Amino acid sequence: MTQWKCSNCSYTFGAETVPEKCPSCKQTCTFSDVTCYIPDCGGPGNIDPRLVGKKDKPLNE
Fold it and tell me: Which of 22, 48, 17, 23 minimizes the C-alpha distance to 35?
């Protein structure tokens, strides 16, 4: 399962596909794939802490 992070509220959740609206803030947002793909953080199905801590750039930059 892919782990997604909301660009608006930074909520992270697991889902097979990106929803139309964030389950937390209920806004139409951009979602980043923050799934771990390396053994260091547990592999697929886990959140990569290096990506979760990263600030998303505003869409207008």
Answer: 48
How far from chain centre, in Å, is Cα 17? Answer: 11
Contacts 24+ apart (CB under 8 A), 6-14: 6/31, 7/31, 7/32, 7/56, 7/59, 10/52, 10/56, 12/47, 12/52, 14/45
- For 55, the token pair is 């600030």
Each residue's pLDDT tens digit, 22-56: 999 999 999 999 999 888 888 888 888 888 876 65
pLDDT at 35: 93
Do residues 24 and 10 touch, judged by C-beta distance below 8 A? no
Q: For residue 49, give Cα distances in angstroms to 14, 26, 34.
A: 14, 24, 8
